[in-house]
């Protein structure tokens, strides 16, 4: 095993652990968000579906009206509570997404730096495994570059070509033009490279660094 992998194991393994911890938190938050959405939807349906029959007495109408108003007051408080929860979850999800993307970018940086140190650049590095229409080394290199320049949105041709290849094979969620100013590090690390465990990362890195 290359000394670079030994020297960076602690950092890389802890970054992957943090990524997966935040991914689990994200999954829980997204699930709760969907649940609250369904609760809000049901509340609205219950409130607006209360058409009264034409053949009830005036006294019954008055009674139904009073009950409806009481229900509407309770529903309003319930909805306010759910909306507050929804907003809180949205903020949590946004923060977690940013954190995960940043951590994934850091992992790509460690991997890319290994190529630079061991092989003095991309050209001398073995390809590694094929992934769709691309190879491991190029995905690492170009995804790292995309992750540090995503806010500018001005990518060099090698980055554009790599993501065009990923888009052609995996779909338009990897389109730079359809998703401007998006950091793709999370999608690359988790969905494309599958680095959800240090052993997977290490296996890939040994294949290109030795």
Average of the residue pLDDT scores: 87
Radius of gyration: 26 Å
**Total DSSP helices:** 6
Order of strands across the biggest sheet? 1-2
Q: Helical residue percent?
A: over 70%
Largest sheet: 2 strands, antiparallel
- What is the N-to-C succession of helices and strands? HHEEHHHH
The parts where pLDDT drops under 50 for at least 5 residues are none
Report the sheet-strand fraction: under 5%
- The secondary-structure class comes to mainly alpha
> Ends: how far apart?
6 Å
Broad shape? elongated
Number of E-type strands: 2
In short:
With 210 residues, the chain is an all-alpha fold.
Topology overview:
Elements: H1 3-48, H2 58-119, E1 130-131, E2 134-135, H3 136-149, H4 157-170, H5 185-192, H6 198-209
Antiparallel strand pairs: 1-2
């Amino acid at each position: 095993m290359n000394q670079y992998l030994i020297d960076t194991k602690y950092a890389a393994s802890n970054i992957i652990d943090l990524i997966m911890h935040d991914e689990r938190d994200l999954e829980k938050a997204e699930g709760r968000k969907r649940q609250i959405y369904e609760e809000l939807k049901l509340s609205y349906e219950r409130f607006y579906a209360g058409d009264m029959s034409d053949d009830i007495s005036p006294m019954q109408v008055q009674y139904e009206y009073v009950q409806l108003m009481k229900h509407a007051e309770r529903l309003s408080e319930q909805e306010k509570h759910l909306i507050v929860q929804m907003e809180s979850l949205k903020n949590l999800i946004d923060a977690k997404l940013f954190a995960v993307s940043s951590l994934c970018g850091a992992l790509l940086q460690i991997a890319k730096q290994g190529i630079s140190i061991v092989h003095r650049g991309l050209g001398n590095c073995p390809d590694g495994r094929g992934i769709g229409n691309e190879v491991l080394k190029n995905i690492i290199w170009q995804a790292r570059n995309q992750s540090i320049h995503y806010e500018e949105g001005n990518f060099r041709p090698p980055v554009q070509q790599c993501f065009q290849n990923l888009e052609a094979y995996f779909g338009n969620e990897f389109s730079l033009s359809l998703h401007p100013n998006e950091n793709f590090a999370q999608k690359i690390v988790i969905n494309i490279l599958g680095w959800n465990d240090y052993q997977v990362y290490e296996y890939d890195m040994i294949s290109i660094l030795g």
